[in-house]
Amino acid sequence: MPNNDIEINTICSDLESSKFTLLSSAHDHNERAQSDRHVARKLPKIKIFGTGGTIASKGASSSHTAGYHVDLTIQELLESIPDISGVCDIDYEQICNVDSKEIDEDSLLKIYAGVSSALQNFDGIVITHGTDTMAETTFFIESTIDSGDVPIVFVGSMRPSTSVSADGPMNLYQAICIAADKQSRGRGVLVSLNDQISAGYYITKTNANSLDSFNVRQGYLGNFVNNEVHYYWPPVKPEVCHKFKLALLPTDDKDATKFTATSFPTVHVLYGHQTLSPELVRLVAQSCEGLVIATMGAGSLPSAVNDVVLELSIPIVYSKRSMDGMVPTANLPKQKSGKRSNIIASGFLNPEKSRILLQLCLFEKFGLSEIREVFKGAYGG
Ligand SMILES: NC(=O)C[C@H](N)C(=O)O
């Protein structure tokens, strides 16, 4: 992790002679607060966290857009963007540096802790992250952090830094400008990718390769064109999002963002298909505290699978493998006795977001009816 203030020459061709100063996270905050630069210009202070992903990756050559590996620190990434010294003052920190397939609960909690702490001292937060699992992290952060007015902007890229027309530097530049823009206040967790601004709660990665990788059926919130942020709507947050107050064990009485490592209950996801084995469902259910099944339509699974599910005692969420639409409660299989079963409809939540929501519910020790209430927020239950 970098320790000192560093001067950076931008590589943007029309700004070749410009310089800006990056403040490393180790830099003393009091010194920063007292600096004339801050006081005189009153620029927004933006915290930038690096976690890895394609945006921080290098490939074998400029034509390679696959088979690359994470190899750039957040400091190096910041060296590749246009001058932002007139936009904001930035401070940066490397949380981890991995492909997002490696993001686990430990990384999620590190991001959670970093964001919680930065919310107290910064006007905006930017997090670089791989796109493959970005939607899971944004869903987790929106579900666990009340960001008030402070924008939390996630950003990634689809091409590695070494490729021709790498999209990372522009995406990162835009994310920082979005986080620094007053219009972004009161919008919660945002995602900036391919000139579009979306709600972190709703995004889904819908294209495994193209630059326009995130499709948001609920609509984009705005876009970024030629240094301008344009929102289509006034500030709004996802109404259906259940906010969890994570009961983490503090290790420092004075600092609520420091806590002991915690593991979340295990929740597995099974993918529904013709001939899905009831025995597989039974077997998987033995090794988890909750299960999500990507059903084939709006809650449909072979009857033999439904029969096994109804015998189990753990909560089982019926989600869907179709990208759009929802699983309504009316489609859930019922107990012969007429009693409510252990099955919960995911509403419009996809399997991976349903998994995180169920995990959070189980972490909070919610019973079946409370879990149902939480999923009702997403029109399931
Ligand atoms: N475009 C990307 O960022 C994909 C990469 N595999 C990741 O999620 O880390």
Automatic annotation (TrEMBL):
One of its GO terms (molecular function) is asparaginase activity. The keyword Cell membrane does not apply. InterPro entries: AsnASE_II, Asp/glu_Ase-like_sf, Asparaginase/glutaminase-like, Asparaginase/glutaminase_AS1, Asparaginase/glutaminase_AS2, Asparaginase_C, L-asparaginase_C, L-asparaginase_N. Residues 45-236 form the L-asparaginase N-terminal domain. It catalyses: L-asparagine + H2O = L-aspartate + NH4(+). Its EC number is 3.5.1.1. Substrate binds at S100, T131, D132. Transmembrane segments: none annotated. It comes from the Eukaryota. SMART domains: Asparaginase (SM00870). Keywords: Hydrolase. One of its GO terms (biological process) is L-asparagine catabolic process. Belongs to the asparaginase 1 family. This is asparaginase. It comes from Lachancea dasiensis.
